[in-house]
């Protein structure tokens, strides 16, 4: 909305800071606005521009507080432009999964902050335009079908200025969009939290660009369900006997289909006996292993190959290539490995060799093993190794649950938490928070203590 009811006040000086700053204050339709400048000259210049606009009879925008003559540049930055600039700013240093997450979140909210009008493309088309053609920097030069071109023209014209978020109703619309899926149904709480974090950071970038005076999301405190549970469900954890049976039956999975189960047996062994993440196991090389004929060996983890999708990696491969999770670039994690895993790795190398770059685990064509491939093999192994009631349960439902079982086994064996954390790649506090319910035997011990207290006179 526009208004001609404008008042411009005298400069104010903020003496509370180390260096004085100068405040330009004005109101539009009784709504207050202000801008802070480091020097009096800059503040005087901006105030003079406001006064000239008033003298010329220009209407002032009630959302941004600015006249049309000052709404160019920073003030006119659209939300679509902000999304593009933010991804350009973050793309190079972000991991493939972070790129996917950022693009997903921004593609969900850009279509919300638009002008009403005819010709709006369907939600599916808008999402495809943003995710596949406009937001990811490497995909902006792709050839665009007519339907995509028309949708691009529409969203570029319709996208509202970021300054619209100074109106609290717009902020609520944005938050509502973060909590919905494409079909309008509520998204999971964890999805909402992840998307909100992305949009919050994008708006922080808008503040850095001086397109907003402050982050609008900070003005709204909206609870969304209970906080996502981080503790491992102890029902997914298999005991050592069950783990051995699962690893054994892998030799029968796909026995006539390029030895898929045998090819991945040592991979799953790494997840259990060394408690590594799947991406870390996929990045493991022969040169990273110390495998003696007898006794304990060790592996040195330096790289992870998480599955992310070709769209989001710099190499165009489906798997990203990154350093270890939550570790500095080039940092190594050394994990001692027990004799059963040493034997599995030696047998694997003898039968399947290594990839050209020295990786231990490869597909039959020498590629990084796809998550869909090892998940399919794992599903078949569960059906062979577990009882019918266990197959339909959450017990070891995902390959990652082998890592949970490995860490739990270490804790239950009495290994000190700092040592377990170092081997698993966790901090001690995170380790105990995640695996607190998987430490077996505590319930009996606590019950005995309570009974002892009750028996005392």
TrEMBL record:
Residues 235-448 form the Tyr recombinase domain. PANTHER family: PHAGE INTEGRASE-RELATED (PTHR30349), PROPHAGE INTEGRASE INTD-RELATED (PTHR30349:SF64). Keywords: DNA recombination. The lineage of its organism: Bacteria, Bacillati, Actinomycetota, Actinomycetes, Kitasatosporales. Pfam families: Phage_integrase (PF00589). InterPro entries: DNA_brk_join_enz (IPR011010), Integrase-like_cat_sf (IPR013762), Integrase_catalytic (IPR002104), Tyrosine_recombinase_XerCD (IPR050090). It comes from Streptomyces polygonati. This is Tyrosine-type recombinase/integrase.
């Amino acid at each position: 909305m526009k208004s001609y009811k404008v008042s411009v006040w005298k400069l104010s000086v903020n003496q509370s800071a180390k260096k004085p700053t100068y405040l330009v204050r004005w109101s539009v339709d009784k709504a207050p606005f202000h801008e802070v400048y480091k020097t009096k000259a800059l503040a005087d210049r901006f105030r003079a521009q406001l006064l000239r606009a008033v003298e010329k009879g220009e209407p002032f925008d009630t959302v941004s507080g600015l006249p049309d003559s000052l709404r160019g540049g920073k003030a006119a930055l659209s939300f679509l432009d902000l999304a593009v600039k933010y991804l350009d700013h973050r793309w190079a240093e972000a991991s493939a999964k972070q790129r996917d997450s950022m693009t997903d979140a921004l593609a969900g909210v850009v279509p919300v902050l638009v002008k009403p009008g005819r010709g709006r493309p369907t939600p599916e088309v808008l999402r495809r335009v943003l995710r596949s053609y406009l937001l990811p920097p490497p995909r902006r030069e792709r050839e665009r079908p007519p339907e995509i071109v028309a949708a691009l023209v529409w969203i570029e014209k319709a996208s509202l200025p970021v300054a619209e978020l100074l109106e609290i109703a717009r902020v609520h619309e944005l938050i509502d969009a973060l909590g919905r899926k494409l079909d309008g149904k509520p998204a999971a709480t964890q999805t909402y939290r992840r998307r909100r974090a992305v949009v919050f950071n994008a708006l922080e970038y808008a503040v850095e660009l001086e397109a907003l005076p402050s982050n609008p999301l900070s003005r709204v405190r909206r609870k969304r369900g209970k906080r996502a549970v981080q503790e491992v469900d102890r029902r997914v954890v298999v005991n050592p006997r069950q783990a051995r049976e699962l690893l054994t039956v892998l030799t029968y999975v796909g026995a006539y289909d390029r030895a898929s189960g045998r090819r991945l047996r040592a991979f799953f062994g790494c997840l259990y006996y060394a408690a590594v993440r799947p991406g870390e196991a996929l990045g493991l090389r022969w040169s990273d292993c110390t495998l003696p004929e007898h006794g304990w060996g060790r592996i040195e983890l330096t790289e992870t190959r998480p599955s992310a999708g070709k769209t989001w990696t710099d190499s165009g491969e489906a798997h990203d290539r990154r350093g270890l999770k939550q570790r500095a670039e080039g940092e190594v994690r050394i994990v001692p490995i027990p004799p059963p895993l040493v034997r599995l790795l030696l047998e694997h190398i003898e039968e399947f060799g290594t990839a050209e770059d020295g990786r231990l685990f490869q597909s039959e064509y020498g590629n990084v093993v796809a998550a869909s491939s090892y998940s399919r093999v794992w599903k078949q192994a569960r059906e062979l190794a577990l009882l019918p009631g266990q197959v339909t349960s959450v017990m070891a439902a995902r390959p990652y649950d082998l890592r949970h079982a490995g860490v739990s086994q270490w804790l239950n064996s009495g290994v000190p938490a700092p040592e377990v954390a170092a081997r698993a790649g966790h901090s001690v506090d995170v380790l105990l928070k995640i695996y607190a319910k998987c430490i077996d035997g505590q319930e009996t011990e606590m019950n005995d203590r309570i009974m002892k207290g009750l028996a005392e006179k």
